[in-house]
Amino acid sequence: MRDDNQNQPPEPEGNGPNPWIKSLMVWGGVFLGLLLVVSMLGGGGQSAGTSLLYSDFKEKVAEGEIKSVEISDERITGVTKDNETFSTIPVRSDTTLTTLLEQNGVEFSGKEPDNGGLLLYTLANLLPFLLLIGIAFFFLRQMQKGGGAGGAMGFGKSKAKMLTEKQGRVTFEDVAGIDEAREELEEIVEFLKDPSRFSKLGGQIPKGALLVGSPGTGKTLLARAIAGEAGVPFFTISGSDFVEMFVGVGASRVRDMFEQAKKNAPCIVFIDEIDAVGRSRGHGLGNSNDEREQTLNQLLVEMDGFEANEGIIIIAATNRPDVLDPALLRPGRFDRQVVVPVPDIDGREKILAVHMRKLPLAPDVNPRTIARGTPGFSGADLANLCNEAALLAARRNKRLVAMQEFEDAKDKVMMGAERRSMVMTEDEKKMTAYHEAGHALVSLNEPASDPIHKATIIPRGRALGMVMRLPERDNYSYHRDKMHANLAVAMGGRVAEEIIFGHDKVSSGASGDIQYATDLARNMVTKWGMSDKLGPLQYEQSQEGYLGMGQTARTMSGAETNRLIDEEIKRLVEEGLKRATDVLTDQEDKLHLLAQAMLEYETLTGDEIDQLMKDGKIDRPDEPKGPVSVSQPGGSTVPKAGKKFGGSGEGAPAGA
Which of 180, 280, 428, 431 has the most Cβ atoms closer than 10 angstroms to its Cβ? Predict the structure, then answer.
């Protein structure tokens, strides 16, 4: 492979208004109501009439215009001889008012203090502060709800959700290709449906099952199928949902989750990505009060502690079983570890059949052929393949999804999307063609190498060109001869550039090939014991670092050992380089032929490359036949010929 070196908030669910807007409207209504009550009551406590200055009031008394008054500490109200009402605010230091009233024959009386008015006055002054406190309380409550808290101070409430049939019922009929894992979990469903069938023979219901497998193999789908089949309450939660920014929240949520589960027993609790909370203890940077470890400790106690949790089955999923705490994996907590593997060819065919139910298929679609050409694909990869095929058919305005769409979708998933709009000079195209021809020719001459599926010089993904090889069958282990063949194939592109264009014209396009070859050689020496000098020992291993950061360390760190390791890695890569050089030097004419054919047709299938090597031409009936002369870099000519897509190859992606 030649590398390319070019370097609004979500809408609320449902049709109703946003809950935040509803709450703000309620609080706004309460505030306006309080203002209205204060204004009404405050106005009712005061007498209607003209407001007078205290000095004007005394003048009117002296002139004999006042008929009667009522005196209180806060206000003086009264009636004039013309029967008009008035009010004024008294001056408390004035002691001559009663004498003046008596001298002018004014009827006067006292009034008890108005405590209600004082209360309303105080309330009116406190109302803005009460409103601010209410708004702060409202926002705090909403934030806590957003964090999974059930109430105003409910940080420790569990975020587990009960799965209902409204969310899309999945059954074991929707799970294909992983029969052994499905059988293990079907037994748990049978336990729940008819426990007496097992208990009369002394068997006990399993307390937990751990689903282990690579990403995309169907672990979560299996759990949803159990929920659909069991007919009991099913709680689902993610491992990361336990841990919050506050210390002690995770352990509290674990307790609350099991309290809910006890109330609904028998039931199933599914914890997805349990490695987020179940990692081995001791990586807390010396902090014995680590929040994650507290959460794990509480989970261990709840699963199998002093108090038994009868009728609660814990199902968890992870793709990192190597980092889980040993106490979590023992029988009594997770009684079963169910491996969910990448499907084999029969499994892939069944998975494709499930996903193809929803597609309008053309008669030429054969799931077995597609399964044979997609080794190493997980269930999620196959679902994506079917989806990409349907999208391609829609883009081409077809009513049915044909085999051609599945082949094109497979190439897109394996090799990346084509970048036909990328502008490359003729020199770059020629160098890419010889680079990929070098890979392909070395692959044809290495018996242990996988067959070529397709070779292209159309830029795909991050690569300027690619040779995709697929094995003839599913591989579960790799032999030394195949690894040496892969090293030679990886070096083929760089060697071809050097032979054709010269040492000074070698490009940086082989960087990915060099990285692949170096990593493969390092694993052969340090992990797989394939070096005669160093013997069958492991010299490197992955370690779980602080805060979950993985790192690779050499277990034997002597200077002499490290020097030998580096020498052996270099020797293996240089042996692959020499093998590629021998092949391409001896068959330089075929290298020219293959490169010129790739320049003409851009993409060649494995069958077409084989035909070109045997007959010196490619037969594609929809294009003109016969050899066509094209120039070599050295000025000579080689024949090239007509077009047609050949059949696709078989096996797991192993592109070079």
Answer: 431
Identify the CA nearest to 648 among candidates 330, 408, 438.
408
Encoding tokens for residue 634?
Answer: 């050295």
Q: Strand 336-339 and strand 628-631: pairing?
A: unpaired
SS3 annotation, 192-236: HHCCHHHHCCCCCCCCEEEEECCCCCCHHHHHHHHHHHHCCCEEE
Domain boundary among 339, 362, 396: 339
Closest by CA to 72, choosing from 52, 92, 50, is 92
| Residues 6+ positions from 254 with CB-CB distance below 8 Å | 158, 242, 295, 298, 299, 302
Partners of 292 in beta bridges: none
Note the pLDDT of residue 153. 45
Q: How many domains does the chain have?
A: 4
Residue 373 structure tokens: 């050409």
Please check whether residues 409 and 438 belong to one and the same domain.
no
For residue 261, give Cα distances in angstroms to 309, 321, 645: 9, 25, 59
CA distances from 505 to 131, 495, 500 (A): 77, 11, 9
Instruction: Round to whole Å and give the CA distance between 212 and 381.
Output: 18
484 versus 559: the higher-pLDDT residue is 484
- The CATH number of whichever domain residue 490 belongs to comes to 1.20.58.760
Q: Give 213-222 pLDDT, tens digit per residue.
A: 888 888 888 8
Q: Is 77 annotated as a binding residue?
A: no
Annotated catalytic sites, by residue? Answer: 436
Is 220 annotated to bind ligand? Answer: yes
Instruction: Determine contact, residues 413/385, Cβ cutoff 8 Å.
Output: yes
Cβ atoms 401, 390 nearer than 8 A: yes
pLDDT score of 581: 93
Place of tokens 């070395």: 442
Q: Which residue range is the domain that position 623 belongs to?
A: 429-640
Is 60 within the bounds of a domain? Answer: yes
Q: Domain containing 100 — which CATH number?
A: 3.30.720.210
pTM, two decimal places? 0.65
User: Are the beta carbons of 184 and 336 closer than 8 angstroms?
Assistant: yes
Residue type, 166: K
- Decide if 81 is inside a domain: yes
Q: Is 216 annotated as a binding residue?
A: yes
Check the annotation: does 435 bind a ligand.
yes
Whether residues 469 and 592 share a domain: the answer is: yes
Lowest mean pLDDT among 12-26, 74-88, 240-254, 504-518: 12-26
What is the C-alpha end-to-end distance of the chain, expressed in Å?
5
Residues 67 and 215 in one domain: no
Is 156 labeled as ligand-binding?
no
Instruction: Give which of 463, 386, 454 is closest to 422, Cα–Cα.
Output: 463
Q: Is 215 annotated as a binding residue?
A: yes
DSSP 413-447: HHH--B-TT----HHHHHHHHHHHHHHHHHHHT-T
User: 476 and 555 share a domain?
Assistant: yes
Q: Does 214 carry a binding-site annotation? A: yes
**Separation CA 428–CA 201 (nearest Å):** 74
